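Section 5.1 Outputs to date
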Amino acid sequence: MTSASAIHEGSTGATPPLSVAMSVYNGARFLESAIDSVLAQDFADFEFLIVDDGSSDGTPDILRAYAARDPRVIPIVRENRGLVASLNQLLGLARAPLVARMDADDLAAPDRFSAQLAFLAEHPEVGVLGSWTTDIDEYGEPCTAGPEDHPVTHEEFLANVVRGGPLLAHPTVIYRRDVVLSVGGYHKAFRHCEDFDLWLRLADRTRIANLPRRLLRYRHYAGQVSQRHAVEQQIGVAVARLAQAERAAGRPDPTETLDALPPLAELDALFGRPDVAQEVRGRAARSLVYSREAMTGAGYDLLLQHVEEGGTGRDLWRTAARLLRFGEPARALRLAAALASR
C-alpha cells in the first residue's frame, strides 16, 4: 500500500504544470491501453496519480509495473473507499495547479493535454475545460452512444443545464485545482453522478467550456457504472438540480453535508416543502425511458409511480411500445393501462 505521505516524500524536482488523476477499480481489462494513451501525450511534463480503489484483479500489478518503468506514474494502492473518496484523495495529492481527469477504460488522443493547456493559458477565466469525444465499444470500434456533442461555450453550457442537454464528459476534463477545492470538491451524497453535481456548483464560480475537438475515445460497454447504476444516477441528477435551485434562490443547500442521499420518501422533509419526491421521481423516470436496463429493472417501477402521480404524454406511450421491443409485453401492457386510466 502506498500512503499519501510516501508520495510526497518521494516527489522530487519542480512542481509539474499538470497532474493527471485516475481512479480504477477492477479495471485491468482496459487499463494498460488507457495508461499508454496518457504516457504517449505530446505534452510530457506531468505527474500521473492513479488510485487503485481496492481492486481484486490484476490492477495493482499493472500499476506497479508501469511505475517501475516511468517515474511519472505514481500508484496509490489501498482498500476500497469508492469513487468519490478516490477523486477527492487525488485532488488532495495533486501538486499541479491544473488537474486532468482520465478514466481507466478510455483513450486520450496524443495531443489532448497540449490542446487543452494551450486553451486554458489563453483563457484564464475558464476554470473547467472538456472536449468532444468519439464513442467506441468494448473492442475499440466506433459506435453511436450520444445524440449530440457537448456545449462549446459557457453560455451554451448554461442553456444545456436548463434543457437537460449534455454538459461535460468527465474523463475529458482539465480543471483548475484551486477552483474545484473552493467549492468543496466532489460531494459524497452524489454517488454515481458526483461529476454532474460538481459542474453545477462550479458554474456559479467559474466559466466552463468544451473544445470542439475529439480528444478522447470514450468507451461504452455492458457493466460500466453508468449502466449498472442508471436509476440511482438519475435520481441523484434530479436532486442535484433541486440543490442548485436552492443555492440560486439564496437558500442553503440541504445536500451539502450529506454522506448519502435519503430515500425518495424523505426528500420533502430534506428540502422543507411538499412534492419534492414527486418531482424527482418524474425527472428521473423520464430520463430512463430509453434505457433497456432501467426499463427492465427498477426504473420501470419508478416510471409506473410517476404515471400514477399524474405523469402522461406521448413519450410515455412510446415507452410502452419500446417495452415490447425490449421483450417485455407484460410491462408494456401494464404501462399502457396505467396511461389509459389517466
